[in-house]
């Protein structure tokens, strides 16, 4: 209700201020700052930072993820950002690079990049309004240490697209042009892409592939092309914001098989861990320490001392056989906790309803398939 009231208030303000460009811009800035307050907490400490459009606030990279992108760039590099948008990636990269040229085809957006770079005290960022492919083609002698591109993942009709050749610009068709101007290309891509299919079907040969996310979601894939160092066996990096990185060769994950826990291993008091989404997307789950509960259940029993596992770690409070009678009993007793399922016949919502669970962060109730069959785990977080 509160969110709706805020939206209604903003709409009423726009109606009252229609025709007053200064007042409308003030409303735009207030709305965008509110929408982006979490993901741009650091950038918005700058009072003069401006949003050119409401869409720029919705689609921009977060400060947290942009810092990860910036860490990929070698200090002192010259960088071309071919699709800069609001410029958050460009600004974070500029703090490591010697120079950044940030291009956007929208005049207002490109203009805002110059204004915001100055407001942030970055004198090595140049905003350019142009079609980046045409701009690059017109400068055959210009070279950069790194080219960065984050193609738009929506079609002209507004439909979401995932393939690199379906995005705007078409990264695949631009590769010959780009490799004439750099030895290194960093491409931000959809997390929906299949990493193995990129190599097998698309014939792409990046040296490094990054799956980047938070503890709850894989946000993106990043392809790092090193022209002259193409390989069919790239290094895969699973990066979880604020929680470090796990790296391995694709060939390692293809040949590995995680050990499976035996019946009787899953008992109260043991540690279990669930890989973070970026680790799952990267495909490194067979390289993780511990024993998987079941060949198709990516929950691991780990030993004390393995708390550095790249995922959420819990202590098992109880293990309950999954049955109608146990569901009814637990429903009568009352269950508090957040409900989740992994390789389980019920959805999380269905299990929550049948348990009559009251949502709480105090513990986690997880329905899983283990070596002994389907069970309900009551878990308390270690970290």
Secondary-structure blueprint:
Layout: H1 2-16, H2 21-35, H3 54-59, H4 63-71, E1 78-81, H5 88-94, E2 99-104, H6 107-119, E3 125-129, H7 132-137, E4 146-149, H8 171-179, E5 184-189, H9 195-200, E6 208-213, E7 218-226, E8 235-240, E9 245-249, H10 250-255, E10 271-275, H11 277-282, E11 291-294, E12 297-302, E13 311-321, H12 324-333, E14 338-342, H13 348-355, E15 364-370, E16 373-381
Helix pairs in contact: 4-5
Account of the 3D structure:
The chain has 383 residues and is of the alpha/beta class. The chain has three domains: 2-51, no CATH class; 57-252, Vaccinia Virus protein VP39 (Rossmann fold); 271-381, no CATH class. 30% of the residues lie in helices and 26% in strands. The chain is built from 13 helices and 16 strands. The chain has helices spanning 2-16, 21-35, 54-59, 63-71, 88-94, 107-119, 132-137, 171-179, 195-200, 250-255, 277-282, 324-333, 348-355, and strands at 78-81, 99-104, 125-129, 146-149, 184-189, 208-213, 218-226, 235-240, 245-249, 271-275, 291-294, 297-302, 311-321, 338-342, 364-370, 373-381. Strands 3-2-1-4-5-7-6-8-9 form a nine-stranded mixed β-sheet, sandwiched between helices. Strands 11-12-10-13-16-15-14 form a seven-stranded mixed β-sheet. Helix 4 (63-71) crosses helix 5. The longest helix is centred in the N-terminal third of the chain and has 15 residues, at 2-16. The chain starts with a helix and ends with a strand. The model has no long low-confidence stretch (mean pLDDT 91).
């Amino acid at each position: 209700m509160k969110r709706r009231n805020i939206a209604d208030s903003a709409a009423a303000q726009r109606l009252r201020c229609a025709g007053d460009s200064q007042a409308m811009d003030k409303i735009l800035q207030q709305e965008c700052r509110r929408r982006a307050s979490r993901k741009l907490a650091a950038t918005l400490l700058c009072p003069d930072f401006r949003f050119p459009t409401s869409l720029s606030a919705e689609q921009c990279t977060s400060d947290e993820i942009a810092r990860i992108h910036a860490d990929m760039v070698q200090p002192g590099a010259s960088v071309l950002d071919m699709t800069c948008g609001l410029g958050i990636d460009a600004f974070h990269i500029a703090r490591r690079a010697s120079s950044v040229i940030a291009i956007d085809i929208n005049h207002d957006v490109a203009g805002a990049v110059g204004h915001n770079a100055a407001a942030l005290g970055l004198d090595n960022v140049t905003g350019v309004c142009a079609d980046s492919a045409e701009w690059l083609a017109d400068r055959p002698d210009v070279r950069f240490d790194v080219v960065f591109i984050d193609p738009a993942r929506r079609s002209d009709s507004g439909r979401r697209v995932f393939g690199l050749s379906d995005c705007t610009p078409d990264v695949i068709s631009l590769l010959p042009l780009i490799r004439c101007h750099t030895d290194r290309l960093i491409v931000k891509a959809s997390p929906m892409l299949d990493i193995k299919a990129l190599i097998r079907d698309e014939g792409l040969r990046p040296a490094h592939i990054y799956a980047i996310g938070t503890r709850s979601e894989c946000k993106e894939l990043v392809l790092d092309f090193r022209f002259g160092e193409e390989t069919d066996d790239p290094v895969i990096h699973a990066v979880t914001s604020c929680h470090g990185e796990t790296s391995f060769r694709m060939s390692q994950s293809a040949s590995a098989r995680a050990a499976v826990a035996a019946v009787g291993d899953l008992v109260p008091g043991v540690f279990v861990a669930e890989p973070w989404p970026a680790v799952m997307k990267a495909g490194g789950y067979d390289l993780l320490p511990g024993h998987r509960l079941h060949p198709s259940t990516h929950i691991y029993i780990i030993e004390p001392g393995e708390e550095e596992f790249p995922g959420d770690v819990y202590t098992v409070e109880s293990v309950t056989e999954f049955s109608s009678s146990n569901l009814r009993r637990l429903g009568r007793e009352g269950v508090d906790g957040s409900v989740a399922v992994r390789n389980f016949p019920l959805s999380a919502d269905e299990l929550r309803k049948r348990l009559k669970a009251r949502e709480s962060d105090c513990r986690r109730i997880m329905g899983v398939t283990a070596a002994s069959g389907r069970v309900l785990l009551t878990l308390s977080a270690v970290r």
